[in-house]
C-alpha cells in the first residue's frame, strides 16, 4: 500500500443485442437511438461526424448530478469494432476514458463486448471510487437493455 | 468547604459535560444572525491544472444568489494565508485564498457562491463552469525529489521547500566508525486525516458603523487568528473580535489560519452582510489539513552488547501543495525527541520538506513527536531482535537514571524530570508481564498468532518557551474576585474539550478557599479573554494554568493589604487560610471573601493609594518545555485466516507530572490511544497516481469504532515538573504518541513465528493477510 495503491477503473462488460452486427453498429452511432437508450440522457447532439455532445443526469448517491460531456468515435471498422472516447464533468467531478467496443456475431443476436479504462476525479474519486464499477455496470446494463428493446421494436 | 479535601487531585466530572451531553452547547453552525448569507465553495477536481476560464454568469443568475467570486475578484484585496514557521531558507508559494490561474490540489478552493440559503449556494457552484487544462501531478514525495520530476509549483523551479539538519551530541561519524554493526531500517508514517466530529465552520459579521469585524470560527486559536488575520483583511486587530464557540474536536486540524476564515471575513465586509460557511465532511477530508506523511531511512550504530552509539535519520516530509500555519515546523519537531527516552550520544537528523499536489500536512495530535516515537520504538525492537537482546533490557540499559534529570539530550533539549524505570516497572506490574509472557508461549504452542508490544516514550509538552515558538509561547490569564464573592477566571488558552473549565476552577477554588461552584472560567472570545496563545502542544494547564496561579496569588496579596487595613495592622501580620483572612494575636476577627470583596468594590474604606477592585492578570513565560513520559504495553492476537488484529490487553502508564484532575487525564489518554489505534491499524489517507483523493469519507477512511477500542488498564506515576509551580506536564497527546508503536510492536511480535520482521502502518487485515500468505513457511 505504499506508495498508495492506484485505483484505475477498468471495466469489462458484455451484452447480447438481438439484431445483426451492422444494425447494432449503426445504432451505436445514431444520436436519436443513443438519446433514448443512454440512462439519464437529457440531450445528445452530433457536433460533427462521429462527435457528440451530451448532458446526462446521474442519480447515484455520492456522485449524483448533471454531467455535461463530449464523446467521439474513432477506429471504426464496421461492423466489427470501434473506439469510444469520452469526457464528462459535473458538480461531483469528472469522468474521462475510452472504451474499445467489439461486436461479434451470435445466434440471432450480436454480442457487444466493451473494455473501458475510466479515470475519475474530484468527489467522484473521493467518495465514489468504490461505487464506480457497480454504477458503470448498472448504467451499461440499462443502456443495452434499452438498445435491445429498440432493436426488437424496429425489427 | 474549608476543611474539605482539596479539589486539585480529585477525579471530578467536567462542568462542561451537562451542556454538551444535553445538546445545549452552541457551535458555530448554531448561530443565526439577521440577514445571514451562506457561502459554498467550488473546489478543484484536479490535482494540478491550469484554469483557462471560469464562467460564473449562470450561477449569478440563480434567484437568491447574492454574489459569485473567483480568485481574480478577491485575491488582490484579501491577503495570503500565512505560515508562521521560522525555517531558514524556506521556499514558499504564495497561498491565495482562492486559486489564481492554477489549482494545486484536489479540493483547492476555486470560487465561492454566496446566497440567501445554503442550498441555493450549493446549487450555484454546480452552475459555475471552469475550463481546466490538466497538468502532471506530483504525488509521491520521493519521486518528487528526483531530477526530471514534474513540479508541484512549476514557477518555483523545484519541489524542495527546505532542508533541516541537526547534528547533536558527540561526533556521529566516530560513533558509526566505532560501531560493531549498523542496523538500517526504513519507516513510513502514513498520511492521516484528523476527522474531528465537527468539520470547520465560520460565521463572519461586519459592523459598518463601528468598523468592527466579528468572526466566529471552529478553531483552537482565536488569539493567533486575531494576530494574523489583520494582515490578510486590512483591518486593525483592535477592530477584530474572534470567537471560538464550542469546538467539536480539533486535534491540531483547527490549529490553523484557513483561507475560508479570511474569505468569509472578506465577504462579510464586502457584502455588508453576515456570511456563514460550514464545511461538509467531504470538503473536510480534502481541504482541512492532513497529518504525518514522512518517509524515513534510519541507521543505528550499535555495539554487539547492545550499546547504541549513534542514530542517523534521513527523512522526507510530504508537505502537500501549500504551507499552512506550521506545515514545515512539524517534521522538524521530530528531531527534538529523536532519541526518545534513551541515552544516545550522537545523532544526525535531516529532513527534507517536499511539495506535492495534495492537501497541506500540519499538526495532528502529537505533531512530530509521534513520528519520532514510532521510529525510535520500532528501532529499539528491531535492534533487540537483530542482536538477540531482550527488548526491555535494551530499553532499560539506555534510560537515564532518575538522578540524571534535568537531562540534556543529544538532540539539544533538556528533559525536565523523569523516572522512566518507574513507569516501565509499573506497566509491567499492571500487565502482569510474566503471566503475559507465559500466555504468549502457550498461545504460540497452540498455533495462535499472539504478540506483546512495548513502547516507552517521552514527548514534548507545555509549548513553550517563546524563543522556541514562532508566535510566542507564553500564556495570559486573569482572575477576578467579584463584588458578590463569586470568581471569574479568564484564560487565554481556549480549551475546546480538554476540560479546563473544570480543572482551572479546581485550581482557583483551592487557592482562594471558595466552593468550586462559585468559580466560572471564561475563554475563547478575544473580547473576553483579551490575550492568549491558545491550545495546542498540550500547553493549556502547564502554561495557561500557571498564568492563572500567578493571578490568584496577586489577588490574594492585594486582598491581604486590604484585610490588614481593615484589621488596622500591617500586611505581614495577615494570614490567609481556608478562604478567610485573619490576624492572629492582633484580633479574633476573621474576614471572609464576601466582606472583603464588597469593601474592595464599594471602596468607602480603602488604604491610601489602594486601587479598588480585586482583579489581577498575568503573563507566564515558561523557561522550558515539559517532557511527559510513559510505558504502554499491548497484547494482540492476529486472526490467521483474516489478518484481523484483536487487542486483548492494553496497559498504559503515563506520567504527566502532578494531576489536577485524574479523570481528565484518563479521558485524554483514552482518546489519545483511540487515535493511535486508528493510525496503527486502520487509517491512511490515500491519493492515487493522478493526485485524486480516494479517502473522502468514512466509508473509505476507517477510523476506529467503539468495538475496536479495547478495555484499557490505565495507571500513572507522578514525577512533578520543575518548570511550573503546578508541577504539571500535559497529557493531550501522550496516548497517541505512546500507543502507536506499542500496537505496531505487538502485531510484529505476533507475526514473528511467521518470520515477519516488519510491516508498515496501518496494519490493516489486508496487509497482514498478504504478509501471512507470502510467508507460509515459518522460519521461527
Structural notes for this entry:
The complex is a heterodimer of chains A (155) and B (780). By secondary structure, chain A is of the alpha+beta class. Chain A has helices at residues 21-27, 31-37, 123-153; strands at residues 9-17, 41-48, 51-58, 65-77, 81-90, 93-105, 110-122. A seven-stranded antiparallel sheet of chain A has the order 1-7-6-5-4-3-2. In chain A, helix 2 (31-37) packs across helix 3. Chain B is an alpha+beta fold and 780 residues long. Chain B folds into three domains: 17-22 and 474-620, 2-Layer Sandwich (Aldehyde Oxidoreductase, domain 4), CATH 3.30.365.10; 31-135 and 197-249 and 254-287, Aldehyde oxidase/xanthine dehydrogenase, a/b hammerhead (Aldehyde Oxidoreductase, domain 3, Alpha-Beta Complex); 378-459 and 625-773, Aldehyde Oxidoreductase, domain 4, CATH 3.30.365.10. Chain B contains 20 helices and 28 strands. In chain B, helix 13 crosses helix 14 (433-445) and helix 18 (662-682) packs across helix 19 (734-751). The radius of gyration of chain B is 28 Å and the shape is globular. The mean pLDDT of chain B is 96. The chains are: A alpha+beta (155), B alpha+beta (780).
Measured by DSSP, the beta-strand proportion of chain A falls in over 45%
- What is the string of helix and strand elements of chain A? EHHEEEEEEH
- Spatial order of the strands forming the largest sheet of chain A: 1-7-6-5-4-3-2
| Side-by-side strand order of the widest sheet of chain B | 3-5-1-12-9-10-11
Strand content of chain B: 15-25%
For the record, the count of structural domains of chain B works out to 3
**CATH homologous superfamily placement of the largest domain in chain B:** Aldehyde oxidase/xanthine dehydrogenase, molybdopterin binding domain
The helix count of chain A comes to 3
Major sheet size, sense and barrel closure of chain B? 7 strands, mixed
Binned, the helix content of chain A reads: 25-40%
- What multimeric state do the chains show? heterodimer
Structural class of chain B: alpha+beta
* Low-pLDDT ranges of chain B: none
Low-confidence stretches of chain A: 1-6
Morphology call of chain A: globular
The chain-level structural class of chain A is: alpha+beta
Note the overall shape of chain B. Answer: globular
The overall average pLDDT of chain A, rounded, is: 86
Amino acid at each position: 500500500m505504499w506508495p498508495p495503491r492506484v485505483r484505475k477503473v477498468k471495466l469489462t462488460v458484455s451484452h447480447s443485442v438481438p439484431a445483426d452486427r451492422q444494425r447494432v453498429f449503426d445504432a451505436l452511432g445514431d444520436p436519436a437511438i443513443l438519446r433514448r437508450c443512454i440512462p439519464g440522457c437529457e440531450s445528445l447532439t452530433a457536433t460533427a461526424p462521429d462527435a457528440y455532445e451530451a448532458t446526462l443526469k446521474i442519480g447515484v448517491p455520492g456522485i449524483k448530478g448533471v454531467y455535461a460531456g463530449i464523446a467521439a468515435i474513432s477506429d471504426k471498422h464496421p461492423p466489427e469494432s470501434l473506439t469510444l472516447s469520452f469526457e464528462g464533468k459535473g458538480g461531483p467531478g469528472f469522468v474521462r476514458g475510452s472504451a474499445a467496443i467489439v461486436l461479434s456475431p451470435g445466434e440471432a443476436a450480436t454480442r457487444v463486448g466493451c473494455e473501458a479504462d475510466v479515470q475519475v476525479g474530484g468527489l467522484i474519486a473521493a467518495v465514489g471510487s468504490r461505487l464506480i464499477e457497480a454504477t458503470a455496470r448498472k448504467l451499461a446494463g440499462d443502456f443495452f437493455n434499452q438498445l435491445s428493446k429498440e432493436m426488437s421494436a424496429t425489427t | 468547604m474549608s476543611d474539605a479535601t482539596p479539589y486539585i487531585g480529585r477525579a471530578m466530572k467536567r462542568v462542561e459535560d451537562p451542556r454538551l451531553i444535553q445538546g445545549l452547547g452552541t457551535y458555530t453552525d448554531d448561530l443565526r444572525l439577521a440577514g445571514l448569507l451562506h457561502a459554498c465553495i467550488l473546489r478543484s477536481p484536479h490535482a494540478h491544472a491550469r484554469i483557462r476560464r471560469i464562467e460564473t454568469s449562470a450561477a449569478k443568475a440563480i434567484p437568491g444568489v447574492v454574489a459569485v467570486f473567483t480568485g481574480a475578484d478577491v485575491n488582490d484585496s484579501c491577503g495570503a494565508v500565512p505560515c508562521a514557521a521560522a525555517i531558514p531558507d524556506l521556499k514558499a508559494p504564495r497561498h491565495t485564498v482562492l486559486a489564481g490561474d492554477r489549482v494545486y490540489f484536489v479540493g483547492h478552493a476555486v470560487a465561492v457562491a454566496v446566497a440567501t440559503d445554503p442550498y441555493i449556494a450549493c446549487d450555484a457552484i454546480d452552475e459555475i463552469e471552469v475550463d481546466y487544462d490538466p497538468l502532471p501531478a506530483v504525488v509521491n514525495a520521493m519521486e518528487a525529489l528526483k531530477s526530471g520530476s514534474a513540479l508541484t509549483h512549476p514557477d518555483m523551479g523545484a519541489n524542495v521547500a527546505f532542508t533541516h539538519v541537526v547534528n547533536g551530541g558527540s561526533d556521529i561519524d566516530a560513533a558509526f566508525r566505532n560501531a560493531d554493526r549498523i542496523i538500517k531500517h526504513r519507516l513510513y508514517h502514513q498520511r492521516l486525516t484528523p476527522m474531528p466530529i465537527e468539520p470547520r465552520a465560520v460565521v463572519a459579521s461586519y459592523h459598518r458603523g463601528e468598523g468592527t469585524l466579528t468572526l466566529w470560527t471552529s478553531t483552537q486559536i482565536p488569539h493567533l487568528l486575531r494576530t494574523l488575520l489583520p494582515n490578510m483583511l486590512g483591518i486593525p486587530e483592535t477592530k477584530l473580535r474572534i470567537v471560538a464557540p464550542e469546538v467539536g474536536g480539533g486535534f491540531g486540524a483547527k490549529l490553523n489560519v484557513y483561507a475560508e476564515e479570511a474569505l468569509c471575513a472578506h465577504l462579510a465586509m464586502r457584502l455588508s452582510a453576515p456570511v456563514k460557511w460550514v464545511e461538509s465532511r467531504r470538503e473536510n477530508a480534502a481541504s482541512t489539513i492532513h497529518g504525518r506523511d514522512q518517509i524515513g531511512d534510519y541507521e543505528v550504530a550499535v555495539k554487539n552488547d547492545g550499546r547504541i552509539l549513534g542514530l542517523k535519520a534521513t527523512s522526507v516530509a510530504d508537505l502537500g501543495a501549500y504551507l499552512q500555519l506550521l506545515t514545515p515546523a512539524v517534521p522538524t519537531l521530530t528531531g527534538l525527541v529523536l532519541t526518545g527516552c534513551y541515552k544516545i550520544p550522537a545523532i544526525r537528523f535531516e529532513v527534507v520538506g517536499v511539495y506535492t499536489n495534495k492537501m497541506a500536512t500540519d499538526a495532528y495530535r502529537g505533531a512530530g513527536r509521534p513520528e519520532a516515537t514510532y521510529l525510535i520504538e520500532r528501532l529499539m525492537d528491531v535492534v533487540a531482535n537483530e542482536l538477540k537482546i531482550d527488548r526491555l533490557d535494551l530499553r532499560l540499559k539506555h534510560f537515564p537514571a532518575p538522578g540524571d534529570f534535568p537531562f540534556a539530550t543529544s538532540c539539544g533539549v533538556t528533559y525536565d524530570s523523569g523516572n522512566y524505570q518507574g513507569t516501565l516497572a509499573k506497566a509491567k506490574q499492571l500487565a502482569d508481564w510474566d503471566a503475559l509472557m507465559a500466555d504468549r508461549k502457550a498461545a504460540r504452542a497452540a498455533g495462535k498468532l499472539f504478540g506483546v508490544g512495548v513502547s516507552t516514550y517521552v514527548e514534548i509538552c507545555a509549548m513553550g518557551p517563546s524563543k522556541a515558538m514562532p508566535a510566542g509561547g507564553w500564556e495570559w490569564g486573569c482572575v477576578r474576585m467579584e463584588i458578590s464573592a463569586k470568581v471569574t477566571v479568564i484564560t487565554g488558552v481556549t480549551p475546546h474539550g480538554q476540560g479546563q473549565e473544570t480543572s482551572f476552577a479546581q485550581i482557583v477554588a483551592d487557592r482562594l478557599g471558595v466552593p468550586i461552584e462559585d468559580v466560572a472560567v471564561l475563554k475563547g472570545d478575544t473580547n473576553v479573554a483579551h490575550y492568549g496563545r491558545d491550545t495546542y502542544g498540550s500547553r493549556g494547564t502547564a502554561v495557561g494554568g500557571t498564568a492563572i496561579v500567578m493571578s490568584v496569588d496577586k489577588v490574594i496579596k492585594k486582598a491581604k493589604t486590604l484585610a490588614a487595613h481593615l484589621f488596622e495592622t500591617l500586611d505581614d501580620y495577615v494570614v490567609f487560610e481556608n478562604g478567610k483572612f485573619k490576624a492572629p494575636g492582633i484580633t479574633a476577627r476573621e474576614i471572609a471573601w464576601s466582606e472583603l470583596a464588597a469593601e474592595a468594590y464599594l471602596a468607602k474604606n480603602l488604604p491610601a493609594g489602594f486601587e479598588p477592585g480585586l482583579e489581577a492578570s498575568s503573563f507566564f513565560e515558561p523557561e522550558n518545555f515539559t517532557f511527559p513520559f510513559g510505558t504502554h504495553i499491548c497484547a494482540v492476537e492476529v486472526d490467521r485466516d483474516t489478518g484481523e488484529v484483536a487487542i486483548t490487553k492494553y496497559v498504559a502508564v503515563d506520567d504527566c507530572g502532578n494531576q489536577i484532575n485524574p479523570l481528565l487525564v484518563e479521558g485524554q489518554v483514552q482518546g489519545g490511544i483511540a487515535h493511535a489505534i486508528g493510525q496503527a491499524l486502520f487509517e491512511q489517507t490515500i491519493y492515487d497516481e493522478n493526485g485524486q483523493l480516494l479517502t473522502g469519507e468514512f466509508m473509505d477512511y476507517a477510523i476506529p469504532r467503539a468495538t475496536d477500542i479495547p478495555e484499557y488498564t490505565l495507571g500513572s506515576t507522578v514525577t512533578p515538573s520543575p518548570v511550573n509551580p503546578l508541577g504539571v506536564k500535559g497529557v493531550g497527546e501522550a496516548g497517541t504518541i505512546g500507543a502507536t508503536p506499542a500496537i505496531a510492536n505487538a502485531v510484529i511480535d505476533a507475526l514473528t513465528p511467521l518470520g515477519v520482521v516488519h510491516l508498515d502502518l496501518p496494519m490493516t487485515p489486508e496487509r497482514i493477510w498478504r504478509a501471512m500468505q507470502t510467508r507460509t513457511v515459518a522460519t521461527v
